[in-house]
Specification:
The structure holds two protein chains of two kinds.
Chain A: H1 19-22, E1 32-37, H2 46-55, E2 81-88, H3 106-111, E3 153-160, H4 168-172, E4 178-180, E5 186-188, H5 199-202, E6 209-210, E7 217-218, H6 224-228, H7 234-238, E8 244-248, H8 249-265, E9 272-274, E10 287-291, H9 311-333
Chain B: E1 5-7, E2 10-12, H1 64-90, H2 93-118, H3 136-160, H4 164-190, H5 195-198, H6 204-223, H7 230-254, H8 264-289, H9 293-323, H10 325-339
Antiparallel strand pairs in B: 1-2
Helix pairs in contact in B: 1-2, 1-4, 1-6, 1-9, 2-3, 2-6, 3-4, 4-6, 6-7, 6-9, 7-8, 8-9
The chains are: A alpha+beta, B mainly alpha.
Pfam family, one (chain A): Fer4_11
Protein name (chain A): Formate dehydrogenase, nitrate-inducible, iron-sulfur subunit
Keywords (chain A): 4Fe-4S, Iron, Iron-sulfur, Metal-binding, Repeat
């Protein structure tokens, strides 16, 4: 079968341990994916740029939105990686960056601030030592600033196509343009896409979109071309903090579990994984995330379900409606007694 | 949170007048537009958070005139084929001709709308590369590629007055596929993540079936002398009942996602559709008593317009539900809560 994706035990919903195998690859390599650990994302947007550069994605207009510092806003035909910036009035809850600078005593350095002439004057971010809050023990940062204001925290998260186990975009594509690769990822073939746009409303995550000038649908390919030659995707390669991790999905899931446990132990109880469970509505994502708040805060759906889960039921109802229409028409021709 | 303006002379303006809504406060809390009649809101106002009020879903890129038009014309054609077949069996040549011509004309226009939405005619051929039962659009393309030649042949043989046998076979074939043409479009809309389309998937095919019946009946009423329009009148009444009843049930079952049907442009379109369909059906009944052609034409026009308004209303409501993250987030949150998480 030329498209591979269809006709091989087409399970529409639920866990699917062998995604590539079900799509017709008997000797598939392990399923590859992304684990995006947003707790170490610094919002540099290097992934966005690297993605555009490598995949030759056209620029999608430079505009200042006035919301946060995020002027990309969301995923679309010309944004395959998107870094969300969320400002929150929440204390940092003892997060540790995991980078030790044991040899530098920053508090000693800070205590000298304002005492010598060269130090910054008004507008400096550090309070003078005499006004430090009483409750703060030496050597610890208080989440409350001197004037009692709760500190703001930034959440940064690099979003991407989820490469779902059950991909609605792939299921509804009428041309076979969207297909499952041997790595278990989902890719659009631009020479076959006919621009019907059906995949756009089908995606429960709002990832794929239609490019305005050519009418065809575009999204992240998980750098299929790079994977084929054993390279990692451009975004993961360019990520300076390893917030974007690429590898076999099984391995990433283990790594993610360990990271969540580590964050919980460090007091970041909000840390949670999103999209990693094979039991979720899309059978688990090929790209999953570690989040520090509810998914919807990041613009992600809290409980996405692949729309084709209900497709058999939909066809049943449509068939019943068609029969009703037939009966209705037949009833219209029943001659009344005159 | 930058609170100051750094200028050459120092720091000014302690706090800007705009504050970015953050975290749990970032949800766009919509003010309910006054309904004017002190109506109770359908669902309690839900607290939810979102990413700066940005939609979770990408909204459908379909052009309203093309796709809502395509849905409407497909329904008109499918139900007209049923009228044509019935007319053939019961010996009503004028009704048969009008219905066959109506089916052929509207399905041709419907295909033209689809191709126009794709942008390039050759792109339609890509639809026929594969047959995918998981894609309602693929299934629909194959249904259409069976139906279109039959509907055209039925109309052509009727106009030519020759090849009677071929014509009857084509008419019968078109009548078999007609109901599928009229109802598959409901699956086409439902099989998306768009909340107001997906949640109504159980009743939407019935709404579309009823709407198809009223439009086909409307066309026949407007074009056929009243002596032969009896079945069209009954079809108008039965179709209006099915359409309006199924839509009511659908809205009741949908919960929060029924809200876009009750706001703004979809609300206006759907109220118009309701009034025109009910009014058209009543006029159709009346036209049987008062033998006046003008009454039948008015009934037909009302039914045709009402059915079109329904498709456009449903289309726009879906787009509105995709644009507001509330309709995506709140029901999913509820679902999670119900599962006990």
């Amino acid at each position: 079968m030329s498209d591979g994706a269809e006709g091989h035990g087409n399970l529409l919903y639920g866990p699917q341990p062998d995604v590539a195998g079900a799509a017709g690859y008997p000797d598939a390599p392990p399923r590859m994916g992304f684990f995006t650990d947003t707790s170490v994302c610094i919002g540099c947007k290097a992934c966005e740029v690297a993605c555009k550069e490598w995949n030759a994605v056209p620029e999608d207009g430079l505009l200042l939105t006035g919301m946060s510092y995020d002027n990309t806003q969301g995923l679309g035909a010309d944004t395959w990686r998107h870094v969300a910036f969320i400002e929150q009035r929440k204390p940092l809850a003892g997060q540790e960056p995991g980078v030790a600078h044991d040899d530098v005593d920053v508090f000693a350095a800070a205590s000298r601030l304002g005492t010598d002439v060269a130090s910054p004057g008004p507008g400096a971010t550090a309070p003078p030592p005499d006004r430090a809050p009483g409750g703060a023990p030496a050597g610890e940062i208080s989440p409350v600033s001197p004037d009692g204001r709760t500190e703001l925290r930034w959440l940064m998260a690099s979003d991407v196509c989820k490469h779902c186990t059950h991909a609605a975009c792939l299921d509804v594509c009428p041309t076979g343009s969207l297909f499952r690769t041997e790595f278990g990822t989902v890719v659009v073939q631009e020479d076959i896409c006919n621009g019907c746009g059906y995949c756009v409303p089908a995606c429960p995550y709002g990832v794929i979109d239609q490019r305005k000038d050519d009418g065809r649908a575009w999204k992240c390919t998980l750098c299929y071309d790079r994977l084929g030659v054993g390279m990692e995707p451009a975004c993961a390669k360019s990520c300076p903090t390893d917030s974007i991790q690429f590898g076999p999905l099984e391995e990433l899931r283990e790594r993610a579990q360990a990271r969540v446990a580590q964050l919980h132990a460090a007091g970041v109880t909000d840390a949670r994984l999103y999209g990693e469970s094979p039991d979720d509505g899309v059978g688990g994502d090929g790209a999953f995330f570690l989040l520090l708040d509810e998914p919807e805060v990041y613009g992600l759906p809290p409980d996405p379900v692949v729309t084709t889960r209900d497709l058999p039921d939909m066809w049943r109802h449509a068939a019943l409606a068609a029969v009703s229409l037939l009966a209705l028409a037949a009833g219209s021709f029943v001659r009344r007694q005159r | 949170m930058s609170e100051s303006d750094v200028t050459r002379d120092g720091v000014r303006h302690a706090r800007p007048d705009r504050e970015a809504p953050t975290g749990a406060h970032a949800g766009r809390r919509r003010r309910r537009r006054g309904r004017g009649r002190g109506e109770q809101p359908m669902v309690p106002e839900a607290e939810f958070s979102s990413y700066y009020g940005k939609p979770v879903l990408n909204k459908p890129t379909w052009k309203p005139l093309d796709i809502a038009g395509y849905l409407y014309l497909g329904g008109l054609a499918g139900a007209s084929s049923l009228l044509a077949a019935g007319a053939g069996v019961t010996g009503r040549p004028a009704l048969g001709r009008a219905a066959k011509l109506g089916a052929a004309g509207s399905i041709t226009l419907s295909l033209a709308a689809l191709v126009h939405d794709l942008g390039r005619p050759a792109r339609f051929l890509n639809m026929l590369r594969v047959f995918k039962p998981t894609s309602p659009m693929s299934v629909g393309s194959w249904i259409l590629s069976g139906y279109v030649p039959l509907a055209l042949a039925a109309a052509a043989t009727d106009v030519a007055g020759r090849y009677r046998l071929v014509g009857s076979a084509a008419t019968a074939g078109a009548a078999v596929l007609g109901p599928a043409v009229a109802t598959y479009t409901a699956v086409l809309l439902s099989d998306t993540a768009v909340p107001s389309w997906h949640e109504g998937y159980r009743q939407l095919p019935f709404v579309f079936a009823g709407s198809a019946a009223t439009s086909a009946a409307g066309l026949a009423l407007a074009a056929v002398p009243s002596g032969q329009a009896g079945p069209a009148r009954r079809m108008a009444v039965l179709g209006a009942g099915l359409e309006l009843g199924a839509f009511r049930v659908m809205k009741l079952r949908m919960g929060l996602t029924a809200e876009p049907f009750e706001q703004g442009r979809p609300r206006r379109l759907l109220r118009t559709a309701e009034a025109l369909t009910a009014g058209g059906a009543a006029l159709a009944l009346l036209s049987a008593r008062v033998r006046d052609r003008r009454l039948a034409v008015a009934a037909g026009a009302a039914l045709l317009t009402g059915s079109a308004a329904l498709r456009f209303g449903v289309f726009h409501a879906g787009v509105a539900s995709a644009e507001d993250p509330r309709y995506t987030v709140v029901p999913q949150r509820e679902r999670l809560r119900a599962r006990g998480r």
